[in-house]
Design brief:
The complex is a heterodimer. Chain A is an all-beta fold. Chain A is built from no helices and 11 strands. Chain A has strands at about 5, 10, 20-25, 35-40, 45-50, 55, 65-70, 70-75, 85-90, 100, 105. In chain A, strands 2, 4, 5, 6, 9, 10 and 11 form a 7-stranded mixed β-sheet that branches. Chain A has a 4-stranded antiparallel β-sheet with strand order 1-3-8-7, with no helix packed on it. Chain B is an all-beta fold. Chain B has strands at about 5, 10, 20-25, 35-40, 45-50, 55-60, 65-70, 75-80, 90-100, 105-110, 115-120. Chain B starts with a strand and ends with a strand. At the A-B interface, β5 and β10 of A face β5, β9 and β10 of B.
Chain lengths: ~110, ~120
């Protein structure tokens, strides 16, 4: 099973600032099958990025993903008030599909 | 716009069976993988298993001995059955649609989730 470790656990930023979130895998993620999700309180996760760097439908371009192998990054270029949430990475290159523990982006 | 809605009892007794249904509206159930996932404070997000519209299933080995996922295409529904539940099975349960053409998927559409507590 691939274990995903996200860092930092919590990051405190202001609107307009840049957020850089890390996801490290315990072994290489097949074909960069790595997704990022945003989750707000009381809501289901929302797909942001798939294939490590492809934005899902309707996701603004201030969200970008990068990385390969074991190291992946989600960057939010200019935080907007609605971006303060918890972000999860997920690998779907091998079974079982696994998620990281999340990074909370707070004001 | 495809929407998913989970339903089922919010409280299950220890050692009993948890049964949930996911209703798909606004689109076809055919041609997609449909997964069940859960989220708890203790274990975070956990993938339980998935089913293709043909009925092919694939489970997380950690739960495989207790899980059954089934599909009823005529009703546009997917079901989850989890046997011999314990307090560790307390979680918000989600159904989600698989996205992408690879062997496994990310998830592009999620239900709102349903909270299930295991307690006597």
């Amino acid at each position: 099973e691939i274990v995903l470790t996200q860092s930092p656990g919590t990051v405190s930023l202001s609107p307009g600032e840049r957020a850089t979130l890390s996801c490290r895998a315990s072994q290489s993620v097949f074909r960069s099958c790595l997704a990022w999700y945003q989750q707000k309180p009381g809501q289901a996760p929302r797909l942001l990025i798939y294939g490590a760097s492809n934005r899902a439908t309707g996701i603004p371009d201030r969200f970008s993903g990068s990385g390969s192998g074991t190291d992946f990054t989600l960057t939010i270029s200019r935080l907007e008030p609605g971006d303060f949430a918890v972000y999860y990475c997920q690998q779907y290159g091998s079974s079982p599909l696994t998620f990281g523990g999340g990074t909370k982006v707070e004001i | 716009q495809v929407q998913l809605q989970e339903s089922g009892p919010g409280l299950v007794k220890p050692s009993d069976t948890l049964s949930l249904t996911c209703s798909v509206s606004g689109g076809s159930i055919s041609g997609y993988y449909w997964s069940w996932l859960r989220q708890s404070a203790g274990k975070g997000l956990e993938w339980i298993g998935r089913i293709y519209s043909s009925g092919y299933t694939h489970y997380n080995l950690s739960l495989k001995s207790r899980v059954t996922i089934a599909i009823e295409t005529s009703k546009n529904q997917i079901s989850l059955t989890l046997n011999s539940v314990t307090a560790a099975d307390t979680a918000v349960y989600y159904c989600a649609r698989g996205y992408g053409a690879g062997s496994y998927n990310s998830f592009d559409i999620w239900g709102q989730g349903t909270m299930v507590s295991v307690s006597s």
